[in-house]
Design goal:
Helix content is about 10%, strand content about 55%. By secondary structure, it is mainly beta. The chain has one domain (about 5-170): Lipid/polyisoprenoid-binding, YceI-like (Lipocalin, Beta Barrel). A twelve-stranded antiparallel sheet has the order 1-5-6-9-10-11-12-15-2-4-7-8, with helices on one face. The protein has a three-stranded antiparallel sheet with strand order 3-14-13, with no helix packed on it. A hairpin with a 4-residue loop joins β13 and β14.
Length: about 180
């Protein structure tokens, strides 16, 4: 029997680089509208890229939500929608995967991510912590045809690798025989 999950957190982390990177910020964003369906070992997820919200600037292990102005937040959202994820043409991101390994509370899900009209492999490592699953993956933007955002004639850029971290209620996954 399939289980649908819509609670938990999905965070996206972007990292700066370039000659003038000290003028830019590493950011944490949250995906606000998403759905995960778990059916035995199969996992299907859909994400609304227009629901991304900037949580703030990452400083060490914390997120500061006071640094960016409302205009900064609006500019970031516009750049993500128009230039990075092109949400008018690609209003949904999907992932289809399968649990392939489970050992000592650690799970591996391999699957296919559909992002900006392109499909590619993506593996997620997850760990059971109490009644939650937490994990992370790295997405290389160029793998999906995304040109990492640049400003100031390229002297400020977003790194190609974007981090994805999830913290979800523990679903009923079929780990028998793994």
């Amino acid at each position: 029997m399939a289980t649908t999950i819509t609670e938990g957190t999905i965070h996206i982390f972007t990292y700066k680089e370039g000659v003038l990177s000290r003028l830019a910020h590493d950011l944490r964003l949250s995906v606000k509208k998403w759905e995960l369906v778990v059916d035995g070992r199969d996992v299907r997820a859909s994400f609304d890229p227009r629901s991304l919200e900037v949580d703030g600037v990452v400083r060490g292990q914390r997120v500061d939500d006071k640094i960016l102005t409302p205009k900064d937040l609006s500019d970031i959202a516009e750049n993500i929608e128009k230039h990075v994820l092109k949400t008018a043409r690609h209003p949904q991101i999907t992932y289809e995967g399968r649990l392939v390994a489970a050992k000592a509370g650690k799970l591996t899900i391999r699957g296919k991510l559909m992002l900006v009209g392109r499909a590619g492999p993506l593996e997620f490592g997850l760990e059971r912590i109490g009644d939650k699953l937490v994990g992370q993956a790295t997405i290389l933007q160029t793998r999906w045809g995304i040109t990492p955002f640049k400003a100031a004639l390229g002297s400020i850029k977003i790194k190609n690798d974007v981090g994805v971290k999830v913290d979800l209620p523990l679903p009923d996954l079929d780990v028998d025989g793994l």
